[in-house]
Amino acid sequence: CILGGSVTVQGLGGALKLNIPAGTQNGRVFRLRGQGMPNLRNPEQRGDLYVRVRVVLPTRLSERDMALFRELAGREPAGEAV
């Protein structure tokens, strides 16, 4: 997530908004405290919900999109991919 943003994730009690910081890497895990399964001994308490980021790259890019990616690739240090 280069620019970051917000996403909606489905929790046990409904939809939750999760803010993703800019520069978040694929596979990063966020913990949403108190949004997980209820405690068996004390149902008033809830565990944590873990959300793993899965970045999906676009498959259909316009020529302008490709040109912008090429321009960005020229700014990266050698050996790093965009």
Structure description:
The protein has one helix at 63-75; strands at residues 5-11, 14-20, 29-32, 49-52. The chain has 82 residues and is of the alpha+beta class. A hairpin with a 2-residue loop joins strand 1 (5-11) and strand 2. The chain is 16% helix and 27% strand. It contains 1 helix and 4 strands, in the order ββββα. The radius of gyration is 18 Å and the shape is elongated. A two-stranded antiparallel sheet has the order 1-2. A two-stranded antiparallel sheet has the order 3-4.
Order of helices and strands: EEEEH
Shape: elongated
Q: Provide the structure class.
A: alpha+beta
Number of separate strands: 4
Report the span from N to C terminus. Answer: 12 Å
| Mean model confidence by pLDDT | 88
Q: Going across the major beta sheet, what is the strand order?
A: 1-2
Q: How helical, in percent, are the residues?
A: 10-25%
Radius of gyration: 18 Å
Give the amount of beta strand, in percent. Answer: 25-35%
Q: Any low-confidence stretches, pLDDT <50, length ≥5?
A: none
Number of helices: 1
